[in-house]
Design goal:
The chain is α/β, with parallel strands linked by helices. It contains 39 helices and 25 strands. The N and C termini lie far apart (70 Å). Bound molecules: flavin-adenine dinucleotide and iron/sulfur cluster (2 copies). The site of one iron/sulfur cluster has 15 residues, from helix 21 and helix 23.
Length: 939
């Protein structure tokens, strides 16, 4: 059991009005980030705004506790964890405002880099920092870590592109460094800090050795210690403060907002893989390649190439290579115009001809080859991590040396791997910046392993510092390198850093132990010990990539936290900590299982392709009562009757005042459990019509087999009497001269998702056998495609047929079918002016984005997919079992939908339409219904 939190602290925190999580599961779930450190916070606070955050700082100070900010939790160096108070700065801080036609962007700290870039894309602009973790890392983390990435180098990293920031200092003072009178206001509000910054600035500038070290270390990417180059690059204390906050890892101030100067997006791109006979040849060629002006130059050593050969995306050339000492540089030109790219590519061709390559190479603009090449490079992390021994912790190191010393450093590093017995430790990274990464897999619960790790670290520190390099180039100092800042900067600059911290945070309120530490062993304390638990979770590296796409992220848990808590449960079990075990298991039922939408969106974001829904489905299955399983198995055998009964029940409740059925379901849920009775609400439609098998069933002349979803029977259309998507698809096909047939037993079929998502294997097996046999008959053994009119059912059918070994039968979603077969044969309709579209999780997973967009564009002049789009979490019946899940999942999208104010609203799955209609108050319909309307209107 983690130590009980201090009651005085908790009382103080609660008085601020912020949400305060104190359960063991809240604290243990939040303890895990992407690093190899694990500290359990006393409390997890979710502040609603900057005022509440400032109040939390004051409350913690009064109670004598310390505070750490947590945003995306993708940091690798241990800077985002604490045993004090952890403040979530992501959930309520996601605002983004584009300014000056995209030249500037203001963002709150919880906005992800991907979300900010999505807003900027329509202006042809992007952020400078381009971390590989852009899907999940946030503006707060990017500023606090001075993040960079593959292309931005030192010219367009956070330090160089931040225009201004709104900072909350530990004292509670709020400074907008972009305000015209910001310097005066700092002077007025914080005279001591102002004077102290002036003194430190003059001290640094007056010390030639400090200037020499700064010039040397900031010529390369460098995130060790505080950014003392700010004292040289800026004159006004407020500008120095703004730039010191960059890379300060939450130890100096809270970044409440950041304003960035943006860069143009270069749409014209050419990429090539240059394979050299050895590392010496690759690094010798580097200066000429750097002079060639490439936007990206990524190094992969021989071990990387061997690992890359295991990647399914490996090119035939790479697969054919017998890797010995080879090394490769992945190079890319990015230009704004085709003419500029052609010029660069021609120069590159001349350069490549002079290089001593092991294989012929050329730059390609072909999108699929380019994505294959990048997949090889990006997949290195995944492939090495995916193959690591279960129970080991992954560590990603991040050093930089002057480019001319890269070869010697890499060679020596490889020797150190051998000497310390680290196998498969690939070296890769941003060669043009002399910045390389390497991975170590370590089992921290064995004393021998810890000693090995310490010995390796000591050798590595000595190596990098002797080459004039930095121990952290872009991931931040954190806990892992805090004890080595002194060695890297020497006495004087280290003293400046310590005085800076004491000046701004005299009480040591913010993130102690991070960035600078006098404890020489700080890097080997609080290490994460990974438990071997179960196949679904053991590969997880806790990177956090999956968190932003998860519909339950703001309600209960994220996928990473679901996995982390399974590890904590296993750990409590092994330790025999029965009270903790009982508590964690109890909380996991609602947090982990009931409020997971099992939509699998996590699997789309995870670099290791981990789909947490698989875990949740299995655990749900293990917990289902036998009577419920038997009931659902019976329903699988009598699905026609079951769907008609559900439809009749919905129609019946429409004839009585809504309060009655609402009250009845509330009472039944109280009696039988929330998980067993869907909640009726007034927004639900009446029941739909029973599906009918076509008179032409088994007609071999038809163009496709139509599998109408049973959702259309249970829930009637948004416009009563309109016939819904079923009639729309039939009309569209009739107009296009496309003939549909159906399975002969259609009314009794289902894609099986209701059973699968609840882990009801018996019922699923029954339905699987029936559907597989029926579709084999109807499609004439796969001759005809099967078309389904609800995206989640389309995906469910694909999965079911695959599980039944019927891979020869092609199942298409109705939107894809209309796009591919019907649309070109239709006359132009009278388009609606504007349409807001809600893609679904299943349409996203099936890659239907292009089809959906084209069909929507055929129906509307303007098509809007909100940047804030995400899975609605309705997930069949989950939105009715737990309406709070859909409410939480759609909160950001709802605001964007309201702001767009479109003429019509569409999706492509009946229950998602219900979820979105309930969340937004707008009438969502299937996109094919809207397309059919436009044709009716014009005929
Ligand atoms: C697989 C992988 C690849 C990566 N690739 C790159 C890469 O290419 N380039 C790169 O630079 N980094 C990379 N990183 C590291 C990491 O993603 C970045 O440093 C990222 O910017 C951290 O952002 P975050 O939102 O996750 O912040 P967190 O990890 O939550 O926090 C980072 C630090 O910022 C502080 N903090 C957070 N919010 C605030 C705030 N509002 N005010 C003040 N302090 C705050 C925290 O206390 C902490 O010290 C990678 C990480 C992973 C796991
Ligand atoms: S399946 Fe969906 S709700 Fe469940 S963890 Fe994954 S993304 Fe979250
Ligand atoms: S499930 Fe995948 S994306 Fe999520 S934390 Fe684990 S490894 Fe990362």
């Amino acid at each position: 059991m983690p130590p009980a939190p201090d009651p005085v602290l908790i009382r103080e925190l609660r008085a601020t009005g912020a949400a305060v999580g104190v359960r063991a599961s809240d604290r243990l779930a939040a303890a895990h980030d992407a690093s190899h450190y694990l500290l359990v916070p006393q409390a997890v606070v979710t502040a609603h705004d900057a005022e509440e955050l400032a109040a939390t700082l004051r409350a913690a100070r009064r109670a004598g506790a310390t505070v750490t900010f947590r945003s995306g939790g993708t940091s690798l160096s241990g800077q985002a964890g604490t045993s004090g108070v952890l403040i979530d700065t992501r959930q309520h801080f996601r605002g983004i405002t584009v300014q000056d036609d995209g030249a500037l962007v203001r963002a709150q700290p919880g906005a992800t880099v991907r979300a900010v870039n999505a807003h900027l894309l329509r202006y042809g602009r992007k952020l400078g920092p381009d971390p590989a973790s852009e899907i999940a890392c946030t503006i707060g983390g990017v500023v606090a870590n001075n993040s960079s990435g593959m292309c931005c180098g030192t010219a367009a990293n956070t330090y160089r592109t931040l225009d201004s920031a709104v900072l909350v200092l530990p004292s509670g003072t709020l400074i907008d460094t972009g305000a015209p009178d910001a310097d005066e206001r700092l002077h007025e509000a914080e005279p001591e800090i102002y004077a102290g910054l002036e003194q430190l600035r003059d001290r640094v500038r007056g010390n030639p050795e400090s200037l020499r070290i700064i010039a040397q270390l900031y010529a390369i990417k460098n995130t060790m210690g505080y950014g003392v180059n700010s004292f040289v690059d800026y004159d006004r204390p407020v500008d120095i403060l703004a730039h010191l906050a960059i890379g300060s890892e939450g130890t100096l101030a809270f970044v409440a907002e950041a304003r960035f100067r943006t860069l143009p997006v270069s749409k014209h791109v050419a990429t090539g893989l240059l394979i050299f006979p050895d590392l010496a040849a690759a690094t010798t060629a580097l200066p000429a390649i750097v002079d060639g002006g490439f936007a990206a130059i990524e190094l992969m050593d021989a071990t990387s190439l061997r690992v890359a050969q295991r990647d399914p995306a490996a090119t035939p050339e790479l697969l054919a290579l017998a890797v010995e000492n080879h090394a490769a540089l992945l190079v890319e030109h990015q230009q704004r115009t085709a003419a500029d790219l052609a010029e660069r590519a021609a120069a590159a061709e001349r350069l490549i001809a002079t290089l001593p390559l092991a294989l012929d190479a050329e730059l390609t603009t072909d999108a699929s080859t380019r994505s294959q090449l990048w997949s090889i490079r990006r997949g290195l992390y995944t492939t090495v991590q995916g193959n690591r021994r279960s129970g080991t912790t992954a560590l990603l190191e991040d050093i930089a040396v002057p480019v001319e010393r890269l070869f010697a450093t890499c060679t020596e590093l490889s020797r150190l791997f051998d000497a310390h017995g680290y196998e498969d430790s690939v070296i890769f990274g941003h060669a043009k910046d002399g910045n390389i990464h390497f991975m170590l897999n370590e089992q921290f619960d064995a004393a021998q392993s810890l000693e090995r790790y310490q010995a390796f670290t000591e050798d590595m520190v000595r190596l990098v510092l002797s080459r004039g390099g930095t121990l952290k180039a872009e991931h931040g100092t954190g806990r892992i390198m805090a004890p080595f800042v002194h060695r890297q900067y020497g006495d004087e600059l280290y003293a400046v850093m310590r005085e800076l911290k004491a000046l701004i945070d005299p009480d040591g309120l913010l993130n102690p132990g991070v960035l600078i530490s006098d404890d020489p062993m700080a890097h080997v304390q609080n290490l994460k010990r990974v438990q071997t638990v179960e196949p679904e979770v053991d590969r997880c590296v806790e990177c956090g990539y999956c968190e932003p796409v998860c519909p339950s992220r703001d309600l209960t848990l994220t996928p990473r936290q679901r996995i982390a808590l399974r590890r904590e449960i296993a750990s409590a079990e092994r330790a025999g900590d029965l009270p903790l075990l009982a508590e964690l298991r109890r909380d996991y039922v609602y947090d982990g299982l009931q409020t997971c939408a099992v939509d699998g969106m996590c699997g789309t974001a995870c670099p290791l392709l981990i789909n947490t829904a698989d875990l949740v489905r299995r655990l749900r299955g293990e917990q289902q009562p036998a009577a419920l399983a038997a009931g659902w198995k019976f329903a699988a055998r009598h699905w026609d009757g079951a769907t008609c009964a559900a439809s009749a029940a919905l129609s019946l409740v429409h004839t009585v005042p809504p309060a009655l059925p609402e009250a009845a379901t509330v009472a039944a849920r109280a009696l039988l459990g929330k998980e067993n009775v869907p909640r009726y609400s007034a927004g639900l439609p009446a029941g739909g019509r029973r599906r009918r098998a076509s008179a032409r069933a088994a007609d071999v002349q038809a163009d496709a087999v139509y599998f109408a979803s049973c959702m259309g029977t249970m829930f009637g259309p948004a416009e009563p009497g309109s016939g819904g998507v079923s009639r729309a698809l039939s009309e569209l096909c009739a107009r296009a001269g496309v003939t549909l047939t159906t399975p002969d037993d259609l009314p009794s079929l289902c894609c099986g998702t209701p059973w699968k998502s609840k882990g009801l294997h018996g019922g699923y097996e029954v339905m699987k056998r029936r559907v597989a046999a029926s579709l084999r008959r109807a499609s004439h053994g796969g001759e005809l495609p099967v078309v389904c009119d609800g995206s989640s059912c389309t995906e469910g059918l694909q999965i079911l047929l695959e599980a039944a070994g019927e891979e020869g039968i092609r199942v298409l979603d109705a939107v894809q079918f209309v796009d591919e077969v019907v649309l070109a044969r239709l006359p132009a309709g009278e388009k609606v002016t504007s349409l807001t579209l809600h893609p679904t999780c299943s349409s996203t997973r099936m890659g239907l984005g292009g089809s959906l967009q084209r069909v929507a564009e055929a129906a509307a002049t303007e098509v809007i997919v909100p940047d804030e789009w995400g899975c609605c979490g309705f997930a069949g019946d989950r939105g009715m079992l737990h309406p709070e899940l859909t409410a939480a999942a759609t909160a950001s999208e709802v605001a964007a939908v309201a702001a767009a104010g479109s003429a019509v609203y569409a999706s492509l799955n009946r229950t998602c339409e219900l979820g979105m209609a309930r969340a937004t108050g707008k009438p969502y319909r299937h996109i094919l219904e809207i397309l059919a309307d436009t044709l009716r209107a014009s005929s």
